[in-house]
C-alpha cells in the first residue's frame, strides 16, 4: 500500500511599511530612486551614527497586529542580530528576537467553502538590508543602499497550512488587510511584500513534524504555489528513495521550476543576538493601543456586509469592488456624489476593469477622480452624450483624468437632438442602402439594425439611438 503524505507549511512574510522615511533615520523610503541617493550615515552604517526610532513604524506594526488578532507586547525592545554580508552595512541588523511587538494572533481563511484559522506566532519590526546588483559582464557586484533601513515587519505564521490553496488564501487575506490599513502597498513585484515558505512533509496521521526546508526568491503568488508543489514532490521522492530531507535554505528558480540549495540550516552560524544598546525599550500604553484601535478602517469583510445592505448591486460586483481598497474608495466616493451605485459599479466593473487588464495595471494604480466619473455618468443620464461617446471619454478620464464636461463641450461631442438634421442624415442613409431597405420591407426586421448603425457612423456616435430608431422606423414605413 502506498504511503500517504501531507504537506506542512508555515510562512515568514516580510512587509515594507509605507512610512515616508526609514525606520531609524530621515531618509526617503520612495521606491526607484537613483542608487545610493536615499542614504545617510545612519542607514549606511557609518561609525558614530545613532538610530532614532520612527514612531509611525510602531503604530503600523500595532495596527497590523490588532487586525490579525494578536496580543500587543506592552514593553518590547530591539535586538542586534550580528552577521556579515555586503548588503548589510553595519555588519548587524536591528530586529526583535526576544520581545516582538505582537504575538499569538490568527487569521481566518476560506478555501473551497471551508473556513480555517491560521495561527500567527509573532510580528516583529526590523530594518531592511541594501540590495546587491550582480553584473555578469564585469563579473562584479554593486551595492545600492537605498533600501537599507527601510522599515519592515515580519509576520511569522504557525505551521498550520496544508496546501498551496491555503497559503494563497492566507497571503491574499493578509495583503488585503495590510492594504486597507494603508500600512503597505504590498507589491510583490517591487519587493514590498516577500514571503519565505517553510515546507515539510510527513505521513498522514503522524503528529511529529518532518524536516523542513525554507524556500526563498518567491516574488509572485504563482511562484509560491509552484514552489510548494515542486518542493513537496522533491521531499517525498527523497523519503521514498531512502534518503533524508536535509534542513536547509533553498532558492526557487521559477523559470526552471526547480529549487537549489543555498545554505545548510544545520551549521547555521550563531547570530549572537543581544539587546540593541543604542535604542531604549518601547513602552506601549493602553491609551496608545486604544488610539490605534480607533483609527482602524472598515476592512474587506465588513465592507462586503455593508455593501449588500446599502447598495443594490450583484454579490460578484461587491466581491471585486472590495478586493481593492482603491476601487472601494473610488466606488464609495463616486456614489456619494451621483447617488447611482448601479451605474458607478457598471463603469468600474466593465470599462475600468477592461482597461486595467489591457494595460496590465493593478487597481491601486487608478489615478482618476471620483468627481470626473460622476460627471460622466451625469452626462449619460441626461442624454447629453451617447454611450459610444461616453466610452471614448472614459478612456481619457482613465488615462489623463480629464474633465468630461469641458472635454465634451470643447470637442462638440454632445448628442445631436436636431430632428431636421437627423432626418436629413437618415434619408441619405436610406438612399445609399436600397438592399437593406428592401430586406426590411420584405419582413426582415433585423435589417433596421444595420441602417441604425450606418446613421450612427455618419453622426460619429453623437446621435441618440432611440431617436434614430424612431425617425428611421417612420421614414421606412412611409416608403
Automatic annotation (TrEMBL):
The keyword Transcription belongs to this UniProt entry's keyword annotation: no
Residues spanning the membrane: none
Taxonomic superkingdom: Bacteria
Similarity remark: Belongs to the GatB/GatE family. GatB subfamily.
Assembly notes: Heterotrimer of A, B and C subunits.
Name of the protein in its database record: Aspartyl/glutamyl-tRNA(Asn/Gln) amidotransferase subunit B
InterPro entries: Asn/Gln-tRNA_amidoTrfase_suB/E, Asn/Gln-tRNA_Trfase_suB/E_cat, Asn/Gln_amidotransferase, Asn/Gln_tRNA_amidoTrase-B-like, GatB, GatB_C_1, GatB_Yqey_C_2, Gln-tRNA_amidoTrfase_suB_CS
EC assignment: 6.3.5.-
Matching Pfam families: GatB_N (PF02934), GatB_Yqey (PF02637)
Residue ranges annotated for the Asn/Gln amidotransferase domain, each copy included: 329-476
PROSITE patterns xref list: GATB
Catalysed reactions listed for this entry: L-aspartyl-tRNA(Asn) + L-glutamine + ATP + H2O = L-asparaginyl-tRNA(Asn) + L-glutamate + ADP + phosphate + 2 H(+); L-glutamyl-tRNA(Gln) + L-glutamine + ATP + H2O = L-glutaminyl-tRNA(Gln) + L-glutamate + ADP + phosphate + H(+)
Source organism of the structure: Velocimicrobium porci
Statement: the UniProt record of this protein carries the keyword Cell wall biogenesis/degradation: no
Top-tier EC class: ligase
Gene Ontology molecular function: any one: glutaminyl-tRNA synthase (glutamine-hydrolyzing) activity
Amino acid at each position: 500500500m502506498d504511503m500517504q503524505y501531507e504537506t506542512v507549511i508555515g510562512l515568514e512574510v516580510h512587509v515594507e511599511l509605507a512610512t515616508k522615511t526609514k525606520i531609524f533615520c530621515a531618509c526617503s523610503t520612495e521606491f526607484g530612486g537613483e542608487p545610493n541617493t536615499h542614504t545617510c550615515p545612519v542607514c549606511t552604517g557609518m561609525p558614530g551614527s545613532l538610530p532614532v526610532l520612527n514612531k509611525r513604524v510602531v503604530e503600523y506594526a500595532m495596527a497590523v497586529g490588532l487586525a490579525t488578532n494578536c496580543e500587543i507586547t506592552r514593553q518590547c525592545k530591539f535586538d542586534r542580530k550580528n552577521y556579515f554580508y555586503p548588503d548589510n552595512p553595519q555588519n548587524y541588523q536591528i530586529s526583535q528576537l526576544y520581545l516582538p511587538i505582537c504575538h499569538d494572533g490568527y487569521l481566518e481563511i476560506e478555501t473551497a467553502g471551508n473556513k480555517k484559522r491560521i495561527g500567527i506566532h509573532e510580528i516583529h519590526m526590523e530594518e531592511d538590508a541594501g540590495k546587491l546588483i550582480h553584473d555578469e559582464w564585469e563579473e562584479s557586484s554593486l551595492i545600492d543602499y537605498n533600501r537599507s533601513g527601510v522599515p519592515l515587519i515580519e509576520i511569522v505564521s504557525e505551521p498550520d497550512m496544508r496546501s498551496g490553496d491555503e497559503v494563497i488564501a492566507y497571503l491574499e487575506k493578509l495583503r488585503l488587510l495590510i492594504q486597507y490599513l494603508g500600512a503597505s502597498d504590498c507589491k510583490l513585484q517591487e519587493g514590498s511584500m516577500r514571503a519565505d515558505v517553510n515546507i515539510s512533509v510527513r505521513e498522514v496521521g503522524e503528529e511529529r513534524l518532518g524536516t523542513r526546508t525554507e524556500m526563498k526568491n518567491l516574488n509572485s503568488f504563482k511562484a509560491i504555489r509552484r514552489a510548494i508543489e515542486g518542493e513537496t514532490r522533491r521531499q517525498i521522492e527523497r523519503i521514498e528513495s531512502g534518503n533524508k530531507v536535509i534542513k536547509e535554505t533553498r532558492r526557487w528558480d521559477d523559470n526552471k521550476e526547480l529549487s537549489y540549495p543555498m545554505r545548510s540550516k544545520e551549521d547555521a552560524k550563531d547570530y549572537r543576538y543581544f539587546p540593541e544598546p543604542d535604542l531604549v525599550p518601547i513602552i506601549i500604553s493602553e491609551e496608545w493601543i486604544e488610539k490605534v484601535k480607533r483609527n482602524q478602517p472598515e476592512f474587506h469583510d465588513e465592507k462586503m456586509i455593508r455593501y449588500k445592505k446599502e447598495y443594490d448591486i450583484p454579490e460578484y460586483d461587491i466581491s471585486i469592488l472590495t478586493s481593492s481598497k482603491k476601487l472601494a474608495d473610488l466606488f464609495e466616493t463616486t456614489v456619494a456624489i451621483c447617488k447611482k451605485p448601479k451605474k458607478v459599479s457598471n463603469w468600474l466593473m466593465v470599462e475600468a476593469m477592461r482597461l486595467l487588464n489591457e494595460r496590465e495595471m493593478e487597481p491601486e494604480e487608478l489615478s482618476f477622480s471620483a468627481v470626473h466619473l460622476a460627471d460622466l455618468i451625469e452626462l449619460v443620464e441626461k442624454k447629453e452624450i451617447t454611450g459610444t461617446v461616453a466610452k471614448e471619454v472614459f478612456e481619457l478620464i482613465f488615462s489623463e483624468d480629464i474633465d468630461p464636461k469641458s472635454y465634451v463641450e470643447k470637442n462638440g461631442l454632445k448628442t445631436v437632438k436636431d430632428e431636421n438634421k437627423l432626418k436629413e442624415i437618415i434619408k441619405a442613409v436610406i438612399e445609399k442602402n436600397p438592399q437593406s431597405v428592401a430586406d426590411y420591407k420584405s419582413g426582415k426586421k433585423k435589417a433596421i439594425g444595420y441602417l441604425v448603425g450606418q446613421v450612427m457612423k455618419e453622426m460619429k456616435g453623437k446621435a441618440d439611438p432611440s431617436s434614430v430608431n424612431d425617425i428611421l422606423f417612420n421614414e421606412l414605413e412611409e416608403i
